[in-house]
Write a structure and sequence with these properties.
heterodimer; A: 391 residues; alpha/beta; Arginase, Chain A; 8-stranded parallel beta sheet; 40% helix; 10% strand; B: 215 residues; alpha+beta; CBS-domain; VC0802-like; 2 domains; two-stranded antiparallel sheet; 7 helices; 8 strands; 30% helix; Diverse_CBS-Domain (chain B); CBS_dom (chain B); CBS_dom_sf (chain B)
Chain lengths: 391, 215
């Protein structure tokens, strides 16, 4: 296994300008906290950091409708009518309007495109843009904290500029619906989303029977896991599905969305993962990227609403795996804890791992794991049959 | 919701004199399970289901390909009179017909002429639309006292937060008639502010409920 891969970390302080309101749960300060943590661990240096560019209108139009882009621009200067707000999903509690929102959102997209170019022009093996992963953005509608869908735009961009086949793997606790629908009838782009079942949780979609349309049939995979799913079952579902889909689709490049909201401390979801899951997620992505794609792997951020205790640790592990193929262990740097503790409303963790007993034990564990493994079978049945008969 | 809003208007039909074999072919080719039988004025005089046709067909074990039975006219096996509905009837009434009569399809008739058809599948599709599970949303369940004016009290909280409601369902609360369960599907990824507002107004939120994982 390759260690010491040359990787790029796309970052700008301006990510923080993507801010809906002071008490909105989506807060890009988590990217700065992650960067800080990595610098204090001496795993990130200036030469690895890439400054992002802003996406152009033409690039946004690879996925979004021009009328929607225009609406976001008008919202940026507060000139959108109430009717248009409703029509385009702007001005809601989830995606409120804020000044210069178009610029802030275009930067996140540009950052993902910067990561793509770095890898596909061969300047780095892997690239990480923690400011991206906004998977709920629709062609002509904002939703779920997402204005522009950088993942969907980046995949269109890869298709057009590099003509490569893309596997998109989404481990955010919410269904990666925006990206899924963008490539639902496309057999050159395969999407795989693991998420908490949509029975209660937003956006409600992501059932196993959503497999794609027309020539895209069999290229959308959905793995909805039950509320209160723990590490073991999460990792089992993730590993089995990722390995099998990889063997089935054999992509040229992997794009991962690394939402960190499947953690038990996340306030918006109901899963019971711990850091163990977030240590394993990048390790497997890294392994498979080298095995099948000559290393080509672009990782994005995503959800993650316990920005103090969960997201910086989870995201720092992605970078550590990218550059050293290992995870951080032991205690967090004191320097980092004392710097950020002053701002945090909760006590910051002292270790890279979660302590036993971070959540109350789940009485229905056996039942939940059994249900998840049945679900996994159902989701992979089509692929398994197809591979069996093609041999 | 009215029948005319959910009915299919292009209906595949058959004349009473047509042979059963033709019905068999139509059912198979179009992946449908019911054929209204109409006269030359498009009046519904009978109906056949795939089961009726199968009962009239030779066994699959029989080698005979061109069997005599299938040459009989369809009118010999059709069911009549036919239960029909009007385009202005309510969708709920069809659900009651399906439940009580134990069949799965009704022709829609206006001025004695066939104008549409509604099947069990159309009905289920409509129900999915009514529950709102087909659009982006989160689900919130609230237990409320069964009293007049409670619904506007609750919905006002959603309105204040500028959160779009995609659907509302009202269930009985178990067997206790003093309470109801309100189920909302709302277009937000972050139901927490609303849940806090609901709790502040002393409503009991049944879901989301994280007590199972709380410290």
């Amino acid at each position: 296994m390759t260690t010491n891969c040359h990787s790029a970390f796309v970052y700008s302080k301006d990510f923080e300008k993507y801010r809906f309101s002071a008490d909105h749960p989506f807060n890009q300060i988590r990217v700065a906290m992650t960067k800080d943590l990595l610098e204090m661990e001496n795993t990130l240096n200036q030469s690895q950091i890439l400054m992002p560019r802003k996406a152009t209108d033409e690039e946004l139009m690879l996925f979004h409708d021009p009328s929607y882009i225009d609406a976001v621009k008008r919202a940026s200067v507060d000139e959108l009518t109430d009717d248009d707000e409703l029509k385009y999903g702007l001005g809601t509690e989830d995606t409120p309007i804020f000044p210069n929102m178009h610029d802030a959102a275009s930067l996140l997209v540009g950052a993902t495109l910067t990561a793509v170019d770095s890898v596909l022009e061969g300047k780095s093996k892997h690239a990480l843009n923690l400011g991206g992963g906004l998977h709920h953005g629709f062609e002509r509608k904002a939703s779920g904290f997402c204005i522009y869908n950088d993942g969907a735009i980046a995949i269109k961009y890869i298709r057009e500029k590099y003509n490569l086949r893309v596997l998109y793997v989404d481990t955010d606790a919410h269904h990666g619906d925006g990206v899924q629908w963008a490539f639902y009838d496309d057999s050159e782009v395969c999407t795989l989303s693991i998420h908490e079942t949509g029975r209660y949780l937003f956006p409600g979609t992501g059932n196993t029977n959503e497999r794609g349309l027309k020539s895209g049939y069999g290229y959308s995979f959905n793995l909805p896991i039950d509320a209160f799913t723990e590490d073991e079952s999460f990792i089992d579902v993730y590993e089995s599905s990722f390995r099998e889909v990889m063997e089935y689709f054999k992509p040229d490049v992997i794009v991962t969305q690394n939402g960190a909201d499947a953690h038990c401390l996340d306030p918006l979801t109901h899963l019971s993962s711990t850091m163990k899951t977030f240590e394993y997620i990048p390790l497997l992505a890294h392994e498979l990227a080298h095995k099948y794609c000559n290393g080509k792997w672009i990782a994005l951020g995503g959800g993650g609403y316990d920005i103090w205790r969960v997201v910086p640790r989870a995201w720092a592990q992605i970078w550590n795996v990218m550059t050293t193929n290992s995870i951080f262990t032991g205690n967090l740097p004191m320097e980092w804890i004392s710097k950020w503790q002053t701002e945090a409303p909760v006590k910051l963790p002292d270790s890279w791992h979660d302590h036993e007993g971070i959540y109350k034990s789940i009485p229905r564990k056996a039942e939940i794991s059994e249900k998840n493994s049945k679900m996994l079978e159902k989701a992979l049945q089509f692929t398994r049959n197809k591979m069996k008969f093609s041999k | 919701m009215l029948v005319k809003e959910i009915m299919k208007t292009s209906v595949i039909t058959l004349s009473p004199e047509a042979p059963i074999s033709e019905a068999l072919k139509l059912l198979t080719d179009n992946h449908i399970r019911h054929l209204p039988i109409v006269d030359e004025d498009n009046r519904v005089i009978g109906i056949v289901s795939d089961r009726d046709v199968r009962d009239a067909s030779p066994s699959i074990f029989s080698k005979q390909v061109d069997s005599e039975e299938l040459k009989n006219p369809i009118k010999s096996i059709m069911t009549h009179p036919v239960v029909t509905v009007h385009p202005l009837d309510f969708v709920e009434e069809i659900a009651a017909i399906f439940y009580e009569e134990e069949f799965a399809c009704v022709p829609v008739v206006q001025n004695d002429r066939l104008v549409g058809i509604v099947t069990e599948k159309d009905m289920l599709y409509t129900l999915i639309q009514l529950t709102g599970t087909h659009v982006q949303s989160s689900q919130i369940e609230i237990k409320v006292p069964n009293k007049i004016g409670i619904l506007p009290e609750v919905t006002a909280i959603f309105g204040k937060r500028k959160v779009q409601i995609t659907s509302v369902l009202i269930y009985p609360y178990k067997t206790d008639s003093h309470f109801k369960v309100l189920v909302f599907r709302v277009q937000t990824m972050n139901p927490l502010p609303i849940i806090n507002d609901l709790k502040a107004e002393n409503f009991e939120v049944l879901w989301p409920n994280t007590s199972e994982s709380e410290l």
